[in-house]
């Protein structure tokens, strides 16, 4: 959004948007705007097996598994040097892609080029913005004003922790606030807990993006959940939100409203609960932690780490449209509903499910809007009674022998894709014989 | 007890027969390790089954537990 209501700011804003989309810092003249916009390559939202996302959730490259396996180097990441952001790395290496068989989603990490913590804020109507830190910082407010002295020091009731408060008045517009300190922690810690007495930034809803210095971890301390409702982009995963005390479950995502996130190492949480809507979320392998549950998160297009050992989805998960269950997911024998209650889920690809009696029965399909379920060639049996949702396509065409069907399906007509060479064998196989008219050889 | 009964006739006029345990146990195809809740075979299929000692599990019970679990979290 343009800072002020004049033509120069408007043209600069349009040029900035084009530069960001094209990943360039080149000068663009207004007479070239239409040609520049027309030349922007869009990949659309279609996912392939291997997808590269920019920090805004846009697919910048996508490959089939075969194409990804033939990659000899990672593609050039988006250039945000004009925004003062330096590319650090992709979430995965080329070797990771190859070891995953070419089926992997990748994001990219950036850090600030001046060792600052940056907030991108948008002010709709004139207001004062209040920042709190646990120590003194220097601030560039992004509108030509600098501040190196705090307004006041606030203390918690035990006088154990202080918050350094900085206040600045803004006119409507979009600004980038740069904050520097040796050890920067926004918010204020209360005595005996991580509860934040003073928010990192107020009003919380003005915060749109966060970027952090290289090799740093920035912890936001808040005293309530569901804050930062407009936070859309985090350029590096080492941003942590604490909204409950450290002895209970951390509502890691609950304090933000990311439209997109790729995290490789989610910090200090076993479970992830109760987030606001996340879209295009990729939660990838973590070297240290195992995430046991993912619940109640309205996710759209999810690729999960293989460190999740079970998946719970409540009926609130109405936005899930596509799930790619990771390879090697360890299904718990005591829980037989791996995909559960996902009302908007339309497409599920279950890989390396495992054996009939111990593992497949853990996959309980109760997702009324699932249209297609595909299994890879490791599926060794299907229990039809565990499908309680109507589906349109069951794809078991990757299997090279007839997959045992241990129970009839509870669902009405659907298409069953099988390998063409096995078509006649399926029509006389136990239980499959009841669905002789459903088969399509591929 | 194992029960085998006529199930239905397919559109290609092939008759199907259903085999199941009247006591709600899994059944096993003789000569194999294949376990079934019930088995629907074409009339000419040579398969025979015996009743195992394992009761068929009913999944709905666990779904209720799971819904409760999630709602408590919320």
Question: Topology, pairings included?
Answer:
The complex is a heterodimer of chains A (442) and B (74).
Chain A: H1 7-22, H2 33-38, E1 50-53, E2 59-63, H3 65-69, E3 85-90, H4 94-99, E4 104-106, E5 108-112, E6 117-123, E7 127-133, E8 138-140, E9 146-147, E10 152-155, E11 162-170, E12 173-180, E13 201-202, E14 207-211, E15 218-221, E16 233-234, E17 239-242, E18 261-263, E19 271-273, E20 278-279, E21 281-283, E22 293-295, E23 299-300, E24 302-303, E25 322-324, E26 339-340, E27 347-350, E28 365-366, E29 372-375, E30 382-383, E31 393-395, E32 405-407, E33 415-418, H5 423-428, E34 439-441
Parallel strand pairs in A: 1-4, 14-16, 15-17, 18-21, 19-22, 20-23, 24-25, 25-27, 26-28, 27-29, 29-31, 30-32, 31-33, 33-34
Antiparallel strand pairs in A: 1-2, 3-5, 6-12, 6-14, 7-11, 7-13, 8-9, 8-12, 10-11
Chain B: E1 2-9, E2 15-21, E3 25-29, E4 35-36, E5 38-42, E6 49-55, H1 60-73
Antiparallel strand pairs in B: 1-2, 2-5, 3-4, 3-6
Protein architecture, described:
The complex is a heterodimer of chains A (about 450) and B (about 70). Chain A is mainly beta and about 450 residues long. Chain A has helices at about 5-20, 35-40, 65-70, 95-100, 425-430; strands at about 50-55, 60-65, 85-90, 105, 110, 115-125, 125-135, 140, 145, 150-155, 160-170, 175-180, 200, 205-210, 220, 235, 240, 260-265, 270-275, 280, 280-285, 295, 300, 300-305, 320-325, 340, 345-350, 365, 370-375, 380-385, 395, 405, 415-420, 440. In chain A, the strands form 11 sheets. Chain A has a 7-stranded parallel β-sheet. Chain A has a 6-stranded mixed β-sheet with strand order 9-8-12-6-14-16, with no helix packed on it. The radius of gyration of chain A is 25 Å and the shape is elongated. Chain A starts with 6 loop residues before the first helix and ends with a strand. Chain B has 1 helix and 6 strands. Chain B has one helix at about 60-74, and strands at about 1-10, 15-20, 25-30, 35, 40, 50-55. In chain B, the strands form 2 sheets. Chain B has a 3-stranded antiparallel β-sheet with strand order 1-2-5, with no helix packed on it. The chains are: A mainly beta (about 450), B alpha+beta (about 70). The interface of A and B includes residues 407, 408 and 428 of A.
């Amino acid at each position: 959004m343009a800072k002020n209501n004049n033509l120069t700011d408007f043209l600069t804003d349009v040029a900035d948007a084009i530069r960001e989309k094209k990943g360039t810092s080149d000068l663009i003249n207004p007479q070239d705007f239409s040609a520049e916009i027309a030349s922007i390559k869009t990949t659309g939202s279609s996912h392939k097996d291997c997808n590269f996302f920019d920090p805004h959730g846009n697919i910048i490259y996508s490959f089939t598994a075969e194409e990804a396996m033939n990659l000899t180097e990672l593609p050039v990441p988006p250039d945000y040097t004009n925004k003062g952001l330096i590319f650090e790395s992709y979430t995965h290496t080329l070797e990771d892609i190859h070891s995953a068989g070419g089926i992997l989603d990748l994001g990219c990490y950036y850090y600030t080029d001046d060792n600052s913590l940056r907030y991108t804020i948008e002010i709709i109507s004139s207001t004062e913005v209040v920042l709190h830190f646990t120590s003194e910082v220097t601030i560039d407010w992004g509108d030509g004003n600098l501040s190196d002295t705090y307004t006041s020091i606030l203390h918690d009731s035990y006088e154990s922790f202080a918050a350094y408060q900085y206040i600045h008045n803004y006119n409507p517009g979009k600004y980038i606030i740069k904050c520097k300190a040796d050890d920067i922690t926004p918010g204020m810690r209360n005595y005996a807990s991580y509860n934040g007495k003073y928010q990192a930034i107020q009003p919380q809803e003005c915060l749109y993006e966060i970027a952090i210095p290289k090799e740093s971890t920035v912890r936001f301390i808040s005293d309530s959940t569901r804050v930062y409702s407009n936070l859309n982009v985090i350029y590096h995963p080492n941003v942590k939100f604490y909204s409950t005390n450290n002895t209970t479950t951390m509502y890691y995502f609950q304090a933000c409203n990311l439209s997109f996130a790729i995290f490789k190492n989610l910090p200090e949480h076993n479970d992830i609960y109760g987030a606001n809507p996340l879209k295009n979320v990729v939660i990838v392998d973590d070297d240290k932690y195992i995430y046991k549950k993912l619940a109640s998160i309205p996710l759209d297009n999810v690729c999960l780490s293989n460190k999740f050992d079970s998946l719970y989805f409540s009926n609130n998960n109405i936005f899930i449209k596509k799930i790619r269950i990771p390879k090697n997911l360890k299904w718990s024998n005591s829980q037989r509903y791996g995909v559960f209650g996902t009302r908007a889920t339309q497409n599920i690809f279950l890989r390396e499910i495992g054996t009939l009696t111990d593992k497949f029965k853990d996959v309980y399909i109760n997702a009324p809007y699932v249209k297609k379920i595909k299994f890879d060639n490791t599926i060794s049996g299907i229990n039809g009674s565990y499908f309680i949702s109507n589906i349109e396509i069951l794809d078991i065409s990757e299997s090279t022998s007839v997959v045992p069907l241990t129970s009839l399906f509870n669902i009405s007509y659907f298409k069953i894709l099988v390998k063409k060479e096995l078509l006649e064998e399926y029509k006389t196989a136990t239980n499959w014989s009841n669905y002789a008219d459903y088969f399509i050889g591929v | 007890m194992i029960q085998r009964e006529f199930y239905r006739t397919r559109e290609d006029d092939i008759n199907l027969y259903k085999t199941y345990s009247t006591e709600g146990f899994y059944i096993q195809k003789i000569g194999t390790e294949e376990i079934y809740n019930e088995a629907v075979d074409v009339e000419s299929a040579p398969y025979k089954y015996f009743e195992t000692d394992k009761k068929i599990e009913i999944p709905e019970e666990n779904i209720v537990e799971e819904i409760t679990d999630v709602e408590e979290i919320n």
